[in-house]
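Because discrete structure vocabularies remain unfamiliar, we reproduce here a specimen of the format, pairing a chain with its fold in token form:
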Amino acid sequence: MIVNRIDISSDKKYLAAGGNFFASYYDLISQKNTPVYVYDGYKNNITGIGFLKDSNNFYTCSEDGFIRM
């Protein structure tokens, strides 16, 4: 697995990671090593990832030209 981008929510509770054809969402408080959610189906690499102001949702943009939330 190759990770291109990561971001941590402003409240420091969540981490989002994006790479080749995937985006993962982790709960840092739970201290589990497995993601809460894994989003796949991207056709290209994730080139940007970040959290919205509420810290519960994140966005991705990728080389396939799509922005997803």
